[in-house]
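# nightly structure sweep
# worker-07 picked up a monomer target from the shared queue
# config: single-sequence mode, recycle default, output format = structure tokens
# input follows
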Amino acid sequence: MQATKTALVLGATGGIGGEAARHLRAAGWRVKALNRDAAKAAAAQPDFDWMQGDAMRRDDVVAAARGADAIVHAVNPPGYRRWAELVLPMLDNTIAAAQGSGARIVLPGTVYNYGPDALPAPHEDSPQNPATRKGAIRAEMEKRLHAASGRGAKVLIVRAGDYFGPRAGNNWFSQALVKPGKPLTTVTNPARAGVGHQWAYLPDVAATMVRLLERGDALDAFCRVHMQGHWDADGTQMVEAIRRVAVAQGGARPAVKTFPWWALPLATPFVPLFRELNEMRYLWREPVRMDNARLVALIGAEPHTRLDDAVAATLAGLGAISVRAGAGVPARAPD
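# output follows
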């Protein structure tokens, strides 16, 4: 009988880290999680083995990783603050811990690594010439991971489109399209008419990570794959899914308004988030679509939740709708 595998999750109280931890636990893994207030975290999620520590302290990460088969590196500074100071030192600590334990590092990847030269269809080996400060840090993270794989570390990068989900953190869905905790009366669309956009439902991303990890030694030392997720072919399908779900749950059909891109430059000196959003505008002005052929070759069909089901769970999790008993989602919706 195979011994239970162990994963250390950094960022288990966040969106993708939390989903990864829950999916690993459901798949039979022992999940260790590092947190600066382990007692508080354990009270909220008792199924994980919480360890007191800080991802910025190398000794804490190395100690927590002992005996781990995988380290999910899903820890990020909140609200885009102090990225340049914190992100790379935290990754370096994870690399040191992985080299000491033999664990495979799992990094949730983003499209921010790619500049306009790689669009509209970047593949796993496309050049990374980012156009934003956050993208430059993300590209440097992957460069360091690639270098570490040449020194014996094992790395898995799962890249997906813009995240959404019932427990997601900072993302376009919850920061632009709808207002968490507010009645769903309006949907704001950042997309340009006719321009496609790629989305990723967080539980599907987490399920994909688990299935890849279970492939074990079949993965290359440096394995990088792209997810297909949900492709919004004309920039309106996500908005229309939100509107369908609102009606299916007994609400009025929300109005649609255009995202005020023009206002962001005026507010960027005062709101760091707006500066970051404005830098990412190029990803909404032309289609960005990743192919998942490499992923499918490894695990078969990609985990994929029907769009309206994913949107309903997301809106309920954000407090934007109240799910009625017996109410469902539309029987047919585009994916």
